[in-house]
User: What shape does this take?
Amino acid sequence: MRITADTKLNFNNRYLTVDGRPWFPLMGEIHYSRVPASCWERELCRMKAGGIDIVSAYTIWIHHEEERGTWDFTGVRDLRRFVKTVGECGLHMFLRIGPWAHGEVRNGGFPDWLMDLEGEGKLRTRTNDPAYMELVRTFYERIFREVEGLFVKDGGPIIGVQIENEYGHCGGLGGEEGEKHMRALLAMAKEIGFDVPLYTATGWGGAVTGGMLPVMGGYCEAPWDQRLGEIEPSGNYIFTRERNDHAIGSDHGIGEGITFDMDQFPYLTAELGGGLQVTRHRRPVATGRDTEAMSLTKLGSGCNLLGYYMYHGGTNPEGKKTTLQESRETGYPNDLPVLSYDFNAPIREYGQLTDTYRRIRRLSLFLKDFGEDLCGMDYIPQEGNPAKPEDLTSLRCAVRASDRGGYLFVSDYQRRRQMADHPDTPLRAFDKEGRLLADFGREDVKDGDIFFYPFDMPLSDGNLLKTANAVPLCILRSAGEDLYVFYAREGIDPDRVLYQIEAGIPRRRRASALTLTADQALHAVKVTLEGRDHLLVSEDDIVEKADGSLAMVCRIREERKPCLRANPSLKSVPQGFERVFEAEDCSYADYRALQACVNPVRAFLSEMTEPDLARDLTGHIHAEGLEGCSEALLVLSYEGESAELTQEEKKIRGDGRAADSFYTGQDWEIGLSGFARDGEADFTLTVHPLLEGDSVFLEKWPSMQNGCACRVNGCHTEAVFELPVGLS
Assistant: This one.
């Protein structure tokens, strides 16, 4: 959906509206100052291809005014260029102007000089102290100068502004004093010229909102938690009317710790954890299944905007005087990597597309075609659904329904916990009075299963889909016919899917159904060519670029020819491809690239030292052939407490650091293009030992030798290509 200056964007107590119609968007956070400016267009297009409609981004004060009065809007800090690029990629934007951001940044984003003024007693930050508000005004005015003319009223992409962050929950004032401060910041922003349809404030954990549209959060774990063992199971995997994340909010009952009337505002999220940023003391790893299950649970609980933090990871920019990451040295409870803000996000630090990316994309396909109806569907609690995540035996289920039909949501998922199996279980949906709405028969529901089934879905041919024991994906529209695409949940044969149709008043338009496997749906994108929708399925990720052309993002370790399937088959074979199969009825066709993609990049690890309990492991890495692809990834398998790559030519803060990592058990991937010179790059690798008894939580500890883990198990490279898919 394209929002323009003539569009009326608003909200009611249930959902966002565009020209009066319900709108269910997806939002994803990316920090422009943590991503190379040369990559912005490429990465934003990948976000859009993953289903994102709205880009959200902090304007981090210390990134722009580290030294008082010296402003920096160049390079990765070029806010105006970034916002323009967002619009050029066909995306909308929420600008999160703080002034306090957190974002795992030094001082929560406040410059050191501002903190020094507070330490000297000259002002009180995050209050209506005139001395502080005068400095905030200067910051707001300077940000406004960069984005002036780029608001949606001017034809630009900015449709919303967030004021402050976690105010009254993580610092700041509560109660009426806190509300006054939020209202004062909002009034100042409007007076300066931040004129947008939507103003938001984070609403969890006692945060005050100043009457603005509250947005909620939810993470699958809590790397900021100071405990070093397994923590209680996350409440984000329970269907509930509760909007608070019990880890970042409170656990006192529905609505407790929320300062606004939940009946007056729609349930929107801005900080669903697309991943987790690890800390030195706590290093949980968020998986694609973790994020998908949490997203599905929020949908079943009545959420009408999925907003992910982070959606795209990044790298902290260079500071003039200090490192810019959050640290205990700066008074925060956590130590973060100096550089890496990877976040294990759907799109990771160097643009890697992940399983999480594909699972959110699959969900986004559904929301693009069915989200408008879903917005108007009420959350209906179901009998037997557990109230607490500690209940690992009861089947978790919820219903959303309206006069446009509904969905039964089922989850047997709790992160890092084993759930009870439910063999031969009746799957039924009931209304608020306990009357049966739909009966899907009996199915086996096993530990880890997450899915939702439709009922009473109106079809475009006038008939009614009473039930389907498959998950809706999208609708492929063409002249005179709609093809409803579903996928069988994991472990279910698509040939076993049952569609119960009730005849209605016939229409001239036809409707039919296609059932994919769960894996096919995971690798599917929808494109429109010559007035007809097509579903393209590929192990490689298909992205629409800013100029409207299509490309396949291919990660290549060994030589191979990328392939794709089109349903229905394409009128002409894509340039650079050959057709290797086509169904007799042209319902689909398979295509293969004419030329193989070859990985030209090689890496050599040598000169390793011998580690001991008191000494780091060091070695030299040489990479070559980097000019032969759009990106090259160095993939390191190491075991230790942490590691760094340093480069003599890259004098970040004088230590030569190019990339860093806190060990989690995952392979460490480093994008090499930013460090190449004449197609080559040289690094010194340092691995710091992990010792038995170190104060760190790891989901899986490496094997210890003599009380220590400090080793490199291997390294290889993978080349990333954007292979054009020439479709006319």
Notes: The longest strand covers residues 711-725. The domain at 602-721 is CATH 2.60.120 (Jelly Rolls).
